[in-house]
Amino acid sequence: METSHIYPGASTLNSYITIDGCSDAIEFYKKAFGATEKGRLMMPDGKIGHAEIEIEGSLLMMADENKDWGNKGPLTIGGNPMTFGLYVKDCDAVFQKALDAGATSVMAIEDMFYGDRVGQVMDPFGYKWMITTHKEDMSFEEMQSRFDKMLAAQ
User: Fold this and answer.
1) Per the database record, which ranges form the VOC domain (predicted)?
2) Which of 10, 23, 63, 102 is paired with 138 by a 20 to 30 Å CA distance?
3) Ordered domains of the chain (ranges, CATH)
């Protein structure tokens, strides 16, 4: 059997995040998003050198901050321009579950012009999550038309 060029369970493009408090973050992601921990590699000081979780069939890799290696999380650097897009069957329920687990609301759940129902939360570790349920298929042309109408109404 030939070994694949892609790590087992991974996709061609994957996210790898740095967190101050990686172990706590794994527990949060289990509670908030139903994550399954795949494994972790521990450093001699007890911090996580590498961990993997799976959410809705997608792999998310992570590690604790290690300033000696130049790895710093969003709370240490004062922000993060990235947002995770998480598609789920019931965004309303998952949004509430994330809030109950300790996330804060960034954008309330609403139906969007592009056919998705969406809300955003900030997790306690400085990462924003766009929690989404797809409701309606449409072309980019239809999305543009709806986008134009939305902008004209503002």
Assistant:
1) 9-134
2) 10
3) 15-152 (3.10.180.10)
Q: pTM (2 decimals)?
A: 0.90
Q: Strands (DSSP E) along the chain, which ranges?
A: 15-19, 36-42, 48-55, 58-64, 83-87, 104-111, 116-122, 128-134
What's the rounded Cα separation, in Å, for the pair 145 and 110?
A: 19
Q: How many CB atoms neighbour CB 103 within 10 A?
A: 25
DSSP output for 95-135:
HHHHHHHT-EEEEEEEE-TTSEEEEEEE-TTS-EEEEEEE-
